[in-house]
From TrEMBL:
<protein>
    <submittedName>
        <fullName>Uncharacterized protein</fullName>
    </submittedName>
</protein>
Amino acid sequence: MAIDTIEDKELEIIVATYLKDKKLTEYEDCLNAFFGGIVLKEGSEIIIQPQCCGDISDITKWETIGEMNSRNWKQLWIGHPWVYVKKQNADIEFTEYTEDDKEMEELKIQYKASQEIIVEEFQKARKILIDFQQRIYQILKKKNIENALEIAKIITGTND
């Protein structure tokens, strides 16, 4: 489910459920970003999606693709298994999922996309994530929760 499709009432339930039984006086030690992350799609086909232990703060890993200029494989953390990425001319190549310590030459390309388009899409994704953080902040503020902004930033992974 895309975070910008979550209705306000649903989001209130998600936030309340997530915060239930958490010591908010120790929020920095007991809260993490929501599980999930970036889904790379072409049309309706899912190419890459978050894996075990991935969370929405992993957008920062994806954003490094915009700065890539190396033709060497680099791990892209999306949880495990993960993928590798590298720049090839004006494109970014993505491998299939792996947890193996394969030799880099053995990695198989699963998908290729324009680096420019990827950067544009991640700028949009970042805006959606900031809006999501603001929506959660408003929910917490309405409930008079101390440190509402800091908590919203942590659970949306925007506290970098």
